Every structure is written in C-alpha cells, then in structure tokens.
Input
Amino acid sequence: MRYIIVSNRLPLRGKPGSNGAIEFTPSIGGLSTGLSSYIKSSNITEYLWIGWPGIDIEEHEQQNVTDKLLEDFKCVPVFLDRNLEKYYYNGFCNQTLWPLFHIDPANTKIEAKCWEYYKKANDLFCDKVMEVFKEGDIIWIHDFHLLMLPQLIRNKLPNATIGFFQHIPFPCFDIFKILMSTWRSELLQGVLGADFIGFHINDYVNNFEQVIARVLRINCDGGRINHQNRLIKYGALPMNIDFKGFSTMASSLTVQRKAEQMRSQFYGQKIILSIDRLDYTKGIINKLKGYGNFLKENPQQHKKVVLLLIAAPSMRKVKAFDKVKKQVDRLVAEINNSFCTDVWFPVFYDHKALSVEEMVTIYTVADVALVTPLRDGMNLIAKEYLASRNDQSGVLILSETAGASIELSGAHIVNPFSIDDIAESLKIALEADPFTQMLKNKSMRSRLSRYNISSWAEDNIKILLKVREDNIVKRLIIN
Ligand code: G6P
Output
C-alpha cells in the first residue's frame, strides 16, 4: 500500500543557493511539520508527496529539480507559473479562502480571476496525481488549497481511495456564503469526491454539515453522506505531534547544553515564549499589546521577565501580511523603548524560521508559552511546548479560538481579542502554583503521548479503508 500525499506546499522549500544551485530547506507550518514527522516517526517508506516547491523555476531546469526531489526526497513537484502563484496561491488561497475560513471577511477578496486560477491549479495537481498513480495507492489530499481535487480525481478514477484533511477551520454558512454562489457549490462538490473528510474539531464538522445542507441540500447523517451512489464519511480527528520525538530531543545533550547557555543569557528572568508564522491570524499584535499592558500594570515584574518573540517569515506576498510585519516591528520598538533599562530589554524579537532543535531548546527554557492566535485550525506549537517539558513545569496560555484548546483543558485559556485578558493571563501564569501546574501538565502530556501523530494518521487511513470496503460492497449490490 503506497500513500500519495498531496498538499499545496511540499515539505521542502527551494531557494537559490550560493553556487547558483537550488537548495532545499524544510517548509514551515503545521501541515508540513506534522505530516513529515509522521513519515519519519512511523518509518513510512512507501509514499510520494506531491506539491509546490515554493520557488519559481525556469522551464529548462524543471526536469533536473524533478529528478532530484524524487530521488532524494520522494517528492513530486508541481511548478506554479507566475500567474498561478499570483492568482491561485496569493489570490484565491491566501486572500479569499484563508481570511474567510479564519472568519475575517474584511480581508476577504472576491475576484473571478482568482477563482479561475484556483480551478486551473487544482486541474494541474490532478494531472500530477494521474501521472504517478498506481492501482492500490491511497491518495491523501491536504487543506483548503485543494478543495476541488478529490472530485477531479474521482472523475478520472471512480474507484480510487481518496482522503481529504482540512487543516484550517471550516466556517459556518453565514461566513461561507460570502463566496459567490457557484463557487460555494463547486468547492463542496469538489471535496465530496473524497471518501473521508477529516477536520480537527467538532465545531468545524458541525459547520461543514450546516454548509453542505444549506448549499447542496444534501442530508448529512452523523458522519455519513450518501452521494452519487457512494458513501462518504466525515468527522473530527485532532492532529497531533510526534510526542516521543519532541520529548526525546528535549532531553538530548545538545539541547540541554544550548538551553543552559540560553538560561544564563537571560539569568534572573522568567522567559515568556511566542513562536508563530508572521500571519495576521496569529494575533501577534494583540499579544504584544497585552504584554505592554502587563508591563505597565506590573512594574514589580520589570527586569524579571523577557518575551522571546519568534515570527517566522511567511512566504505569502499579501498586503495584510506586510502590514502585520510593520505593526509588529513598531510595537516591539515601542515596548522596548518604553521599558528598557541599561541591563534589560523586555522583548527579544527574531524574524526567522527556526530549526526543530532550536525550537525545542526554546521550549525547554520557556517558563510560559503565550499561544494566542485570533483563530487557528489546531496550533501544534502549544502541543510541542508541552511535549518538550519533561519536568512537567511551565504554563501554557492558549486562545480559546485555537482548535487545540478543546483538548488542552489544563492550559490557561484566554480570549485573544481581549488585550486585558492577555495581560491578566501573564500575571496569573507567572504567579501560578508550580505543583498545581505540574498536575495539569502531566495530564495534558499523558493525553498527547497516547494519541500522537501516528495515531492521528492511522485513524484517518483506517476510516478511509473502511469506507473503501463499504463502497466495494455497495457497488456489488448495485451491479
Ligand atoms: C497553514 C496551512 C498550510 C500551509 C501553512 C504554511 O498551516 O494550513 O496548508 O502550508 O500554513 O503556509 P504557506 O502558505 O507558507 O504554505
């Protein structure tokens, strides 16, 4: 059994190297890090991963890059030309579906040209799947970039096994209907080409049911849909992390050594951590304002705390992302200017993507993790932080609007839209009773270690295979 994983972005991103050759570095974002860690931790060898390498490559170089990616990484590139990158990726994906599905209509662009390119891109991905598909393969499609792909493949391979997982929230009908009416039904018909459609949490599943009923007038029956003589299942499977991998890395000598250095760099200060992609849905502005208020209201904490703010550059060439970068730069400078002393800077800000080892080092030294996205499908950073706390210490502050908050009830839950709430949560976290916190962390860690990334992936595949069997029986009965 071979998996064909399909996602917009490959787990590797190309960039021009120093000697003119293209270099590949790991992509960032929950989907890519999560699935890569599943493949690694479960020793999956029978797979191909189809996606965009994130770089514009001249036509005459494409074959070389294709060969290299396939041979070295089992990756099959889909090259996006400038128009596809502009209107499909930066257009319909990042300026229509991304803001809309994160319930941000004000940033949502409705433009026919972007929609046309979205369809073109889904066709292109379909061609790529057809090139590599072999009988018996399991096709597993990921995320909102490729909502139409399941049905496009189904049209060509009626009996294929196709899974789909949505990594971002799925909105309710009132929000979904901001899309043009033909787009609504085409997107939904597209995703219904899958055998199993997975979401992180029940809220998104409920929204999906509502939208399917209102737009397509199809009845959903508790996780099952009968559509065009096929059974389709859908449901919530919260994505998880490679718990053991993070926990083991946290105890490794290299991490311990680096952590020691970092602790001495911030000696006498409690470390508050914030790691995100630089994205307006991540709530970084409110987080900084909340931290600023906390410092204003708690002068006794000056010189005793530091915020490590890591904002990894997002490749999206979208105005709203630029705007947030400028705001973050300005707020960091404002806070540092208002409160710094000769020996203390309240914010340490880095605008770069970290390696997993660097992230784990910071997780181990951070007394508090401040994870406050305005809206987030899941948020794996919160889970990685807990997995790296082998001594069970540390406080996780988590948005109630992140999918992860459903599972991580021992976190200190905040409303990320309330700056006061964020400021207050920092005070509470820094004063939390260590013993009570350890008990909470212990129970969250135990949950994360039991249901890890492999359990998540295997559950998806198990359901998919069961639907395949049910549909074989169904076809036999019909024929
Ligand atoms: C989120 C999405 C992913 C996406 C990632 C990084 O996690 O769910 O599909 O790949 O962000 O964004 P980018 O646009 O850089 O791939």
